[in-house]
Amino acid sequence: MGRVVIFIWLSIAAIVVVLGFIRLAPSDPLDWNTQPEFSEDKTFRGGVFRVVRSGEDGLARFHIVASNAARTRVLAGSVEDEMVTYVTRTRLLGFPDYTTARQDGELLKVYARLRFGRSDLGANNDRINSWIAQMEPAPQ
């Protein structure tokens, strides 16, 4: 009986340590404020690429939506730099997802990905599609 209790307490301690690491792990802007070259939409297990013909102010309009989203903060960059990286954390466990948006002429290129694990269960796809849908239309 004593071994079972010790095993349970050690298991709980291990879970607390792992969840603490996930919640408190530092996010280095040099690692995350980057974006690979891509020219078309793509969905993969850990995130998405989205290319939107947004006009030259697309990043500014995207920034308004993203910076007002729940549990989301700017990690690095700015609209003036033409690239911004956001961190969005899950509600319960605080898993971080990173979204980098970059203005490329008339195109807005958005790269969203997870940090921990192999699959985001479509969370990045759903979030980015929602943010793009909420953007104000480009002025005519």
TrEMBL record:
This is DUF1499 domain-containing protein. The keyword Transmembrane helix applies. Keywords: Membrane, Transmembrane, Transmembrane helix. It comes from the Bacteria. The chain crosses the membrane at residues 6-25. The keyword Membrane applies. It comes from Phaeobacter porticola. InterPro entries: DUF1499 (IPR010865).
